[in-house]
TrEMBL record:
InterPro entries: EmrE-like (IPR037185), Small_drug/metabolite_transptr (IPR000390), Small_multidrug_res (IPR045324). This is Small multidrug resistance protein. The chain crosses the membrane at residues 33-50, 57-78, 84-103. It is a multi-pass membrane protein. Pfam families: Multi_Drug_Res (PF00893). GO terms for cellular component: plasma membrane.
């Protein structure tokens, strides 16, 4: 169940990151409310996952999935470019998460 909580937390993390851009510096009410709720839900569900998972594994995978999801969806929603350095960083994040998972 901890891995399911971690995946849910990661979805909220991506929503939080993308929502932060939509707030325009927290000057827009509804995007700001959405962003704060997503952040709270993400931290809450992460805390549920960390009941069982090591914090070093859970937090790293949470931020890794959040980072990758934000870059991918940022390219779709905000038309941001996915460059070669971003692709290399993706590979490093995925490799690191796999090593952590296999080592735990």
């Amino acid at each position: 169940m901890a891995w399911i909580y971690l995946l849910i937390a990661s979805v909220f993390e991506v929503a939080f990151a993308l929502g932060t851009n939509a707030t325009r510096g927290f000057t827009r009410l509804w995007p700001s409310v959405f962003t704060l709720v997503a952040a709270a839900c993400g931290v809450f569900t992460l805390s549920l996952a960390l009941r069982t998972l090591d914090v070093s594994v859970g937090y790293t995978i949470w931020t890794g999935i959040g980072s990758i999801g934000t870059v991918v969806l940022g390219s779709v929603i905000y038309k941001e470019r996915i460059t070669t350095p971003k692709m290399i960083a993706f590979a490093a994040i995925i490799a690191g998460a796999l090593v952590l998972r296999l080592g735990s």
